[in-house]
Amino acid sequence: MPLFGTFCVIGPGLIGSSVLRRLRAHPGLVDRLVVADRDPAVLERIRDLDLGDIVTEDMQKAVEDADCVMLCVPVGAIAPVAAAILPHMKPGAILTDVGSTRRSVVEALTPHLRDDIAYVPAHPMAGTEHSGPDAGFATLFEDRWCLLTPSGDAPQASIDRIANFWRAMGARIRIMDPDHHDTICAMVSHLPHLIAFTICGTADTLAEDMRAEVLDFAASGFRDFTRIAASDPTMWRDIFLNNSDALLSVLDRFSQDAAAMAEAIRKGDEKTIVETISRGRRIRRSLIENRQA
Amino acid sequence: MPLFGTFCVIGPGLIGSSVLRRLRAHPGLVDRLVVADRDPAVLERIRDLDLGDIVTEDMQKAVEDADCVMLCVPVGAIAPVAAAILPHMKPGAILTDVGSTRRSVVEALTPHLRDDIAYVPAHPMAGTEHSGPDAGFATLFEDRWCLLTPSGDAPQASIDRIANFWRAMGARIRIMDPDHHDTICAMVSHLPHLIAFTICGTADTLAEDMRAEVLDFAASGFRDFTRIAASDPTMWRDIFLNNSDALLSVLDRFSQDAAAMAEAIRKGDEKTIVETISRGRRIRRSLIENRQA
Fold first, then answer.
1. What structural domains and CATH numbers belong to chain B?
2. Chain B (183-222) residues lying within 8 Å, Cβ to Cβ, of chain A
3. I need a surface site. Which of A162, A210, B69, B262 has the fewest CB within 10 A?
């Protein structure tokens, strides 16, 4: 018994193509794969990789027979694309997405929802610094969290189907409130990315001769930062703009903590410095105990 | 022909024990290994690991026959330990270290130098988040940079011997001015570490229920930061305090860049956001071309 008859992915980049690969690797999870994108080059790759039974630029046609439509477009495109396809979806179908931010997406999308279509937003916390349909792989979601943030209106049966779908992708499921989701992700993912992008910019503004040497001597600290910083600009622009409240709040907190650390270094306050470093080690140990490191 | 007859390591932690392991793995580079530390537990481990021919708590005795003494103690201990051992070193011997900061160490150490002892500071840019004599390994320095910052007084022959020593460790050599060294390292290593320690502290001050979830959901961004943050507190306290000018200067620059990014997000200034992210990608590409990533 398949999870869905016809399953439609719109925007098959790193996440979407990983879902498609997983579905191809485990035949029987769905009956038929429909893939849509506005970019013909992306669709060409999807055809070459044989990741869809129907591959089309026509989003409205793509969704009309789908039992589940999964939007894998950048966060800023979720609501507009949803608005365009919702009138063409069939009654009883489920709409889901894979967006990294929730509150603003839900607010923008809600006015377009239909009573006969369940919307169950999901955020698989997985990814690499690579993007596009060639970057995906079938095991991307294994043992990673997938956070579901359904509204109170969503039928339990639809929530269960999306949860089971992500379990079939290999993920672990947690259901939470959209605002709570946004604060957690601002702290564990969006702020680290903002910092990584920023520090690369800081290095880039060093004098010409210095910059060359920064590249020569990038120690492990900087290397890890730049790995994060290699991510897709459009995707992260949308995440920052769509989670600005939670992100600016944790950034403000971080900036105060960094200023306090600077003051401790300026004053030679060894106790504060050692305490700050030791907290890092404690958090690290907790992560290892949680088997996330 | 060995590089040195008697070679003495003081403070065999991650770096020092890696040097010792490399020397054991390549017999003939030196004739005899002398290892000293003030901590009997460390010396016990060095004996168990068979990393020294003579292992002693007596630093003055340890150095008296050495042709080269390498200080692998934390940055803040380099000058005091050097002051204590220099009167006991034999004429013509070389004093070196592995400190991550240069200007303040050189300033503190210079008054204690002798005309008949060459001081050739070296900074192998290698390490892991682990510390202590058990954390070392013989290949730690392979293909990593080792930055030499000798003063104008150091004889070229002594500089060449230390350069050849580090080449035998597997490292690539660059010679530069101490101030230049300190700015480069502030940017590529000390600032990223300061940020990593700080962001862990920021996460740690979230409300109790949030913090537990931060640990549960630590995405790859936060994971990379905490790996860096697991490093040794004493070592990093000393680095921050001994490179405070260069570090506070790049931190200030970074804070301004982060504030500009926050302002762009607040205003919805897509152009600035995308430019900042794209710079990160450019830097990343340069790193890959330099084969450091």
1. 4-176 (3.40.50.720), 180-289 (1.10.3660.10)
2. 183-185, 187-206, 210, 213-222
3. A210
